[in-house]
Amino acid sequence: MSTTVETVSAAARTAPPAVIVAIDGPSGTGKSSTSKAVAAQLGLSYLDTGAQYRAITWWMLNNGVDVGDPAEIATAAAKPVIVSGTDPTAPTITVDGEDASGPIRTQEVTSKVSAVSAVPEVRTLITGLQRSIAAGAERGIVVEGRDIGTTVLPDADIKIFLTASPEARAARRSGEVKGSDLAATKEALIKRDAADSGRKTSPLAKAADAVEVDTTELTLAQVIECVVTLVGEKQAAK
Ligand SMILES: Nc1ncnc2c1ncn2[C@@H]1O[C@H](COP(=O)(O)OP(=O)(O)O)[C@@H](O)[C@H]1O
Ligand SMILES: Nc1ccn([C@@H]2O[C@H](COP(=O)(O)OP(=O)(O)O)[C@@H](O)[C@H]2O)c(=O)n1
């Protein structure tokens, strides 16, 4: 008995303190790739909050909700059950028990998600879900999105705001889809950024205490290294 207690307390002494990392920024700045890699490297959980907004949008499109009508969106918001798996090496997302990881990435969902995510009732529900996931992450978590540092987790240990030029972001996004049109990708991306930054409820914004990293001229490996270093410094100071 005493051996078990001693082993547990020894482990508690050597394990780094749980750390909450908030990574925000517009589309194509590298949030997902960076967050997954940082979480995997540091043994933390990972949450893609954009996937949750995409999932609720997908459900609405499949269930006859008029996504041009905020009142209809608000009424339907609590109906789908969204579950996020937080292993950074294999993140998952289900809606009512169904794997949604593929269908949430379609062009149709991408073009409608900003309208759905702007509705306050949607944000209240999803924000609650995000906070409970973060609170349950024993070793800590990297949470990426648009309003994590400002609204969802304002007490996060470290906040990063990633940026990059619209040209670099469009080129990265375009590179993911074979045969995609670079100019059209850039236009759609700028339109979505404007909607996300301009909405009333928790818009895309840099928290006052966030560290801004411009990734335009950096490789993904350099961005990951930069964030891992910042998190390590925070953990050491805790
Ligand atoms: N610093 C970088 N340099 C070049 N390509 C990058 C960089 N960061 C991310 N990428 C690539 O850009 C694309 C978009 O990255 P992603 O992490 O999905 O961005 P976000 O989550 O901010 O939308 C991915 O294909 C990714 O591999
Ligand atoms: N914390 C968040 C995350 C995403 N979102 C919304 O969800 C959309 C999709 O987010 P995403 O992270 O999957 O977008 P990409 O940049 O990866 O394409 C955004 O355009 C926002 O409308 C949000 O409102 N708040």
From TrEMBL:
Q: What family does this belong to? A: Belongs to the cytidylate kinase family. Type 1 subfamily.
State a single Pfam family of this protein: Cytidylate_kin
The protein's name in its UniProt record = Cytidylate kinase
Chief subcellular location:
cytoplasm
The record ties this protein, via SUPFAM superfamilies, to: P-loop containing nucleoside triphosphate hydrolases (SSF52540)
**Cellular compartments per GO CC:** cytosol
- What's the source species for this entry? Streptomyces nitrosporeus
UniProt EC number: 2.7.4.25
Report keywords, A-Z.
Answer: ATP-binding, Cytoplasm, Kinase, Nucleotide-binding, Transferase
Enumerate the subcellular locations listed in this protein's record, separating them with semicolons: Cytoplasm
- GO molecular function: any one? CMP kinase activity
Q: Which NCBIfam families does this UniProt record tie to the protein?
A: cmk (TIGR00017)
Membrane-crossing residue ranges in chain numbering: none
Question: What residues does the Cytidylate kinase domain cover?
Answer: 21-231
Q: Which catalysed reactions does the entry list for this protein? A: dCMP + ATP = dCDP + ADP; CMP + ATP = CDP + ADP
Residue sites binding ATP per the record? G25, P26, S27, G28, T29, G30, K31, S32, S33
Q: Which biological processes are named by the entry's GO terms? A: nucleobase-containing small molecule interconversion; pyrimidine nucleotide metabolic process
The record's listing under InterPro entries reads:
Cytidylate_kin (IPR003136), Cytidylate_kinase_dom (IPR011994), P-loop_NTPase (IPR027417)
